[in-house]
Amino acid sequence: MTDEDDDTNDDQGDLPSEPLEEVFSSLEPTEVNMARDFLETGGIETFIFDGAGSRMLGTTVAVMARLMVHEKDADEARLLLKDMGFNR
Question: Does the pTM of the predicted model rise above 0.70?
Answer without folding.
Answer: yes
